[in-house]
Amino acid sequence: MNMTAIRYAEDMIIVDCGMMFPDAELLGVDLVMPDLTFLKENQAQIRAVVLTHGHEDHIGAVPYFLSEIDVPVYGTDFTLALVDRRLEEYELDEEPRFIKVKPKQIVEIGPFKVEFIHVTHSIVSAVALAITTPLGVIIHTGDFKVDPTPTDNELFDLHTLAEYGKRGVLLLLSDSTNADRPGYTESERAVRPRMEEIFNRAERRVVVSAFSSSIHRIQLVLDLAQEYNRRVAVIGRSMVSVTEIAHSLGLLDIPDGILLRPQDAMDLPPDKVAILISGTQGEPMSALARVAVDNHKHISVDEGDTVVLSARIIPGNEKAIFRMIDHMSRRGAEVLYGSMNPPLHVSGHGSIEEMKLVLNLVRPRYFMPIHGEFRQLTKHAKLAEHLKFAGLEETFVMDTGEVLEIDHHGGRKAGKVTVGRVCIDSGSVDDVVQEMVIRDRRHLSEDGIVLPIIAINRHSGRLEGAPEIVSRGFNVGEDEAFVEAARGIVARTLEGSNQEEKTDWGVMKEKIRADLKRHIVKQTQRRPLIMPVILEV
Ligand SMILES: [Zn+2]
Ligand SMILES: [Zn+2]
Question: What is the C-alpha to C-alpha distance for residues 350 and 177, in angstroms, rounded to an integer?
Fold first, then answer.
């Protein structure tokens, strides 16, 4: 949920506006957004939102923000196209005001002059910001690595950064994500040798899963497919739409005739097909998770196929990812993942030496490490200590919500503003539910709880008798016809699932929860907490 407000007198700009995906403990919550209380209180001062790049943790809350506070949004073409894609799921009262910018461009917003500086990162069209204020220059790096050989040959504009450093920078805010990794992060190009080896020796289908925003990686798969004479099917909603956006903006080169319709992918000889698919994190409803349990409309993975997870395993997702890998391994596919050498994935964030490089070029008077856990911010702060001899006066390690105040006398921490998270149901801004504790309490007290209880025979995998529907505090639940209908829904969900899905309780619970939720919301306009219980008998 990256978001920074920069205020001079009565004018404020917002840098980035991110969301986060809820982890398993936020039961039933679809999205988590930043609490906008402070910004709403100061709404009249907000002049614009300025975006550094298109990752969800930097743009995901823009639709939610715009539904509350209507201001212009600045960003590069790709970043704004990704915001626009998200906006399609919302209905805003006002047309959003997007202002497209290019690297090296300078825009004036109130008392601020903002220059966009190209940086290298795992997503294309990423920028750092040089914000000139009446008090001095603030550099905000956004997310970056210093990739000396980016695959699109768009170099990190270190010159411009250095020039600001030469003229004097008041405050540097810099990405701390990899502050515990020594040395340099490998170039995006380092992924190619390993991927090439896979294409070279694969005798059947090659299935590559990557983040849909990772255009560099998608380009690599397209290039290798062309070299090794394979056609490519693009599978998964986000993968398809982001690929289209990047292509239409000239950021992705799709060789003529290489694309294959998903429904044709199984008709070609297996050694002539590569598949690009979303779902690296084992999200239960993603395309790859469905392929893993052999329940995808168009694609299946068989004996001898090669599946590549070209992404980092995000902590918290291990169980879901390994379960998915197990499913595909059981079916005889070779699944490649993790940090082998040469790598299948490289980080988009710079390591210690790259952080030092940026610190040394910018040589700020004040430094505030951003983006990372508190331990990483602290480590990044330590890295800047040597700059004390080059004019660094103070480093501020800030907690979320803390205020840094700078005036003619200097810089200091100055209290806290309200921050936090807002949980949202089903991707609609109308469904804001305050804090999750309140949310669960509300669910339980107003809408009650529904427990579909399903008994599955350990040996046959079959349903033992009709599903039970137990409810508390959910009035309609005592209604016979309603219970009958809900039983029917659960039974149909089970029938529509194949053997492999049925053995995966995680998948089954999610499917039952989603189907039943849809039914109950439609019938009753209420949102009870739904917790499927599966018993093996
Ligand atoms: Zn990023
Ligand atoms: Zn980020």
Answer: 8
Residues with CB under 5 A from ligand 2 (ion): 57, 143
Asked if residue 426 lies in contact with residue 525, where contact means CB atoms within 8 angstroms, the answer is no
Q: Which residues are catalytically annotated?
A: 175, 349
Return d(Cα 222, Cα 274) in angstroms, integer: 9
- Of 101, 193, 202, 120, nearest to 161 by C-alpha is 120
The C-alpha atoms of residue 179 and residue 198 are separated, in whole angstroms, by: 32
**Which residue is it, tokens 């999750």?**
436
Phi, psi of 277 (to 5 degrees): -140, 145
198-244 pLDDT tens trace? 999 999 999 999 999 999 999 999 999 999 999 999 999 999 999 99
Q: Write the pLDDT tens digit of every residue in 97-136.
A: 999 999 999 999 999 999 999 999 999 999 999 999 999 9
> Distance between CA 142 and CA 52 in Å, rounded?
6
- The whole-chain average pLDDT of the chain stands at 90
Closest CA to 122 of 276, 305, 310: 310
Neighbours of 269 (CB within 10 A): 9
Q: Which helix (H) or strand (E) holds 405?
A: strand 402-407
The reported pLDDT for the residue numbered 427 is 46
Distance of CA 198 from the midpoint of ligand 2 (Å): 30
Q: Is 339 exposed, middle or buried (0-12, 13-18, 19+ CB in 10 A)?
A: exposed
Helical (H) or strand (E) element with 89? none
Closest ligand to C-alpha of residue 123 is 1
Tokens representing 338 are 């993790």
Low-confidence ranges of the chain (pLDDT < 50): 27, 427-429, 477
Tokens for 93?
A: 């009262």
3-state secondary structure of 417: coil
- Spatial separation of the C-alpha atoms in residues 45 and 409, rounded to whole Å: 24
Check residue 18 and give its pLDDT: 96
Ligand minimally distant from the alpha carbon of residue 126? 1
Q: What's the gap in Å between 528 CA and the centre of ligand 1? A: 35
Cα-to-centroid distance, 349 and ligand 1 (Å): 8
Give me ligand 2 centre to Cα 434, in Å: 24
Task: Kindly state the tokens that stand for 115.
Answer: 């220059």
Instruction: Please state, as a whole number, how many other Cβ atoms lie within 10 Å of the Cβ of residue 20.
Output: 17
Residues linked to residue 416 through DSSP beta bridges, in sequence order: 402
